[in-house]
Amino acid sequence: MLTAFEEAIALLVSGDEMLTNIVLVTLRMSIASSLIALAIGMPLGTALAMGRSKIVSALVIVNRTLMGVPPVVCGLLCYLMFCGVGPLRWLQLLYTVEGMVVAQVLLITPIVAGNMESYVRGLVDDVRETARGIGLSRVRTALLLLGECRYQVFTVYLIAFGRAIAEVGAVSMVGGAIAYKTNVMTTAIMMYTNRGDFTLGIALGIILLLMFLTLNVAVSIVQRNVAR
């Protein structure tokens, strides 16, 4: 066990080509999917928080349900859509990073929307009253709300990025964990551990832990600024 940790540290220091490729693919997929999910989920969550009709209430329930969808179900849906007999096979997204991004966006967007809805709902009444007093439109009111919870938006993005980088089920089904192409840290840890290659698995695990530590520190700093 100790030897495996020593070899993992040596692998990290050496700048191994495969290790570097896995980390870069992971970052490329996670950053792209979390940014797209934020771009879709942020206005969606704001709209859900501002709405007061029964339809909006039903959509909130649907979104909260989608927040708990198992990743493998999302991966299965994307696989069926992109495979050789699927309706979107012409896009040729199966076993590509782009296909993995699509799966991640479907998985993360409800989480972004749900968190934004929770944050904005606490501010919407006060901001709406102010907006009516100065004659702002609904769009400008929504922008004012987003400005008021800008720190929370950053926190939501960090949550989305953390969710993307930790995902296994959907990305393994859609990406196939192909070496030097679609293999990301979580799928690589699982694959190399099953092969008995604990050195690479431990090295990737250390990188993941450091990334999550960085994310948690960033979230804590943002929350501290909000509290002030």
TrEMBL record:
Keyword tags: Membrane, Transmembrane, Transmembrane helix, Transport
Pfam hit, one: BPD_transp_1
Top-level lineage group: Bacteria
CC annotations in GO: plasma membrane
Record bears the keyword Lipid metabolism: no
Transmembrane segments: 22-49, 61-82, 94-113, 154-180, 200-222
Protein localization: Cell membrane; Membrane
Record's bilayer topology term: Multi-pass membrane protein
Chief place of localization: membrane
Domain ABC transmembrane type-1: 23-219
GO BP: transmembrane transport
Membership in a protein family: Belongs to the binding-protein-dependent transport system permease family.
Protein name per UniProt: ABC transporter permease
Organism: Slackia equolifaciens
